[in-house]
Amino acid sequence: MSAVNTDITAGVRQGFIAIDWGTSSFRLRALDERGTLVAQSDSANGVSRLGRDGLLPFLQAEIARLPDAARAYPVILCGMIGSNIGLRAVPYAQCPLDPATLADQMASISATQDESPRMHIVPGVCARGATGELEVMRGEETQIIGWLQQADAAQKQRSLLCLPGTHAKWVQIRDGQIHAFTTAMTGELYALLSEHSVLVQGEQQFDDTAFLAGVEASRSDSTSSGALLQQLFSARTRVLDNKLHPQHSAAYLSGLLIGSEIRHAVAGENHPPAVQLIGSERITRLYRQALQSMEIECHCHDGESLALAGLAFFARQLAPRQTAPA
Question: Which Gene3D superfamilies match (predicted)?
Answer without folding.
Answer: 2-keto-3-deoxy-galactonokinase, C-terminal domain, 2-keto-3-deoxy-galactonokinase, substrate binding domain
